[in-house]
Write a structure and sequence with these properties.
It is a single chain. With 157 residues, the chain is an alpha+beta fold. The chain has one domain. It has a 3-stranded antiparallel beta sheet with strand order 1-4-3. Strands 2-5 form a two-stranded antiparallel sheet. The longest helix has 14 residues. It is globular, with a radius of gyration of 18 Å.
Length: 157
């Protein structure tokens, strides 16, 4: 599952899913199912480390002084993107003006075998959302198919 901002940065921050697990995620995840229009405003803030240095909370509590991410921002469009298993490579993209350092699946130079929109962006989203380049990819593939120029992978919309 990727967002347009993930595609622009060249990294899918969500883990790859088996097709049946992806189907379940589209039904059960409130973000993917479109039941919420904003990300959780507090993120992981309620999870804090205790004062005991031997406590195991260090394994589940978020690191201290983390860079803010999506907290409270409007939901972007989400897409289901299929890639070949041979193209599945985990890497880290450094922090830049578009976001904090992120580890995920490399997308740069990786052909998308299938691309399907899962949800639209939140209604009345502000202009801070990135261009939805993935919608343009789907439109271009549809055009190529219509013109009989497409020999590539299947694409659903």
């Amino acid at each position: 599952m990727i967002r347009p901002s993930d595609y622009l940065r060249g990294v899918a921050v969500e883990p790859g899913l088996h097709p049946e697990c992806a189907w379940y995620s589209r039904q059960a995840c409130v973000m993917l199912a479109g039941h919420v229009d904003r990300y959780n405003p507090v993120g992981n803030a309620p999870l804090n480390r205790c004062g005991d240095p031997l406590c195991r909370c260090r394994y589940w509590a978020p690191p201290e002084n983390t860079t803010p991410g999506r907290e409270g921002k409007p939901a972007e469009a989400w897409y289901e993107a299929w890639i070949r298993l041979d193209d599945y490579e985990v890497f880290t993209v450094p922090a830049d003006e578009s976001g904090a350092e992120a580890t995920g699946i490399a997308l740069r130079g990786v052909p998308l075998r299938r691309l399907r929109k899962v949800r639209d962006p939140a209604p009345n989203s502000d202009d801070s959302q990135p261009m939805d380049l993935l919608a343009a990819v789907i439109a271009a593939r549809k055009l190529w198919e219509t013109l009989g120029l497409a020999e590539g992978p299947e694409t659903a919309d």
